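Protein Entry — a single chain follows
Fields — amino acid sequence, structure tokens
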Amino acid sequence: MNRLELTGLTTRPAQVWGGIRLVPLVRERPVEGLRLHEELYAEHGPGVVDLGARTHYASVIPHGFVADWSGDGEQSAAYGTQLGGADGRPPRTARLQRHRHHRMAKRRPGDRLRFLPLHLALEGYLSLHFGGPATAWEEWSRQALRDGLSPRAEDAYLGWSVRGLGDALRVFEIHPGQCGVMVYAADALAAAFVVPHPEDYRLLHPSLVEDLYGELIHQYALYGAPVPEFAARIPDGPGPVSLAGLRAAAREREREWAEAHDTLFAGELLDTSYAFDRVYRMGVFTLWRFLPPFRPGGAGQHIGETITGHKGQVAYLKTFRLSEAQVRRGHLLHRLAAADWRIAGAAEALGTTEEEVVRRIRAAGFESLLRDRGRSFPGRKNR
């Protein structure tokens, strides 16, 4: 498995609000045997996740998801939260007073797994070669050898601060059978979100404004011009006009839009090879997180997490678009690790000089890893 397959999901015409474009994804039939519920954490302040080995992940964590493959998800909310609602039916969301979490994904009683959506993927990116140099090469500082890349931080924006996103999610109706959406800002793919069942999507649709989005998406939404709306024009032609003919022509326009979207708009997400890391196996389903190949200067690249069935069908998906600077950092860390953290070896692999590699390390924000910031490297002139 090295690609994302959205088999069973059909693209519907785009919904446009200013610079935000929402592309609904509809299933002909729900994914059987899996449901998703939401846990809401009472205060939207910082949350901390214990990753073990004296390592912690800290971020704003407004909610968690509970994957339920017990088969009784139609009638139950997240385990232990079945408090009667006003209409006598159990609620499908829970508001919990918890700010510290043990693990990104933790088994619950029964066939349920609580995981932290999107943070699972972001922690995978932050842990990229987190241990730092394994060999005490003379280029690296004591801090690099002792602590590696700790602490490691990246910036992101809550969906509330992405201009137009909240309004777009509130204004547009949800399609019958809708199980997902692709979110664009200034026609740059910001995120993809897929769930197994239409009822799950209706409940989780508002949670998109609580997700994290990259700096690039925030800027595109803030400064980008309104994007063109979807328009289907049926050309005039000879012959009688009938309702069946108009319906067939409209369906053809929808098919053309779906094909254009999947090959052009979403191509950067679907045509990329990813490195998948299995997080948890849930019966016939598996929770993964994935990383892109980190190729600088190309199309947009995404990190994310997904739940797939035994045939690789995507039941759940959530993605985060990396900025070009984040892609460069990932690329640099890959090259350094592949060269066993020898700067000379990394320079050879990158086709550049040691001085340039040191410059890139500093530009990436990893300057504290270097042993002596004033140390001379071949080709560098010092006073």
Observations:
- The chain has ten helices and 19 strands.
- The CA atoms of residues 355 and 380 lie 6 Å apart.
